[in-house]
Structures are given as structure tokens and as C-alpha cells.
Amino acid sequence: MLALCLGGGFAALAQAQDAPPAPAASAAPAAVSTAVTDTLDQRLEGCAACHGKQGQGGINAYYPHLAGKPADYLYDQLKRFQAGTRHYAQMTYMVRFMDDAYMHEIANYYAQQKLTCMPVEAARPDLSGVAAGEPIPAGGAVVAAEGGSSVPPCSSKQ
Fold first, then answer.
1. Is residue 86 within 8 Å of residue 77, measured between CB atoms?
2. Cα separation, 52 vs 58, whole angstroms
3. What's the CA gap between 44 and 15, in Å, rounded?
4. Whole-model pTM?
5. Each residue of 33-50: pLDDT tens digit?
6. What is the tens place of the pLDDT at every residue in 117-141?
7. How many CA atoms are closer than 13 Å to the CA of 123, on its beta-carbon side?
């Protein structure tokens, strides 16, 4: 039974191939441009998704910064992902079909970027005027220190 079904399908396909082409429709859809500008900025979009536009690293520090690292080091890491000697599925996927010139271009770009970090002092809350053991004004999220400690807690115990 399967052979008859398949045989009939092949016969229909052979007839369709021998038939003259169907006349073109009078209202053909407009051609859609699929051209993509091949620029370095466009090529780096995949990198920027995790490492930041200038290679500053992810906001949660999970993804490392690339900015300012030596180009040879960055290129070597890309080659290791490509060869499978360094393992992270997303990176392996990204570099699988890149050629050496492309990887050198990426490495050189990030090596030329300047790493800018927020100074530690800017990340700390302003505690001037807050006495030890008093609540830190942070919208009620942080409560007073426990047991006479001068170090306020990191989270609420509500």
C-alpha cells in the first residue's frame, strides 16, 4: 500500500515537472530588500548583547568585559571557543563559522576600547547624617541594624 502511495506521488511529481510553467500572476508582490549592511557595528551586535556595546561587560558581571584586553588574548579565546577547548554554548555557536580575519577584527576592536568603571564611591549610598543603628533612607527596603551593630543589614526582616 505504501509503495502505491509513494509511486503515485512520484508519478504526479514527474507530470508536474513536464507540464509547462503556469502563467505569471498579474499582480506580483513587490520585491523585498534583504540586503544587510556589512559594517563592524552590525557584526558586533551579537557580542554587544552580552558584553556591552563597547565591551564593558554585563551589568551583573556575569559576562566579562572585553574592553582594553590584549587583542591576541581575545583572538585566542575566540579560537578556543571555535575549537571546542573552551566551553560556553552561546559563544561556540557565535564563532563556529567565523574566519580568522573576522575574529581578528573583533579582537582588535575590543582591544582598542577603553574600560570605564563606576568608581566604588559612586556605588555606595550616602550615609552622612545617618547614626549607627538608624534605618538607612532607601524607600523602606533596609531596616535598622541588629544588636547594636554599626553595620546596617543588607535586607529587610519584615
1. yes
2. 6
3. 49
4. 0.54
5. 777 778 888 889 999 999
6. 655 555 566 677 777 777 766 544 4
7. 4
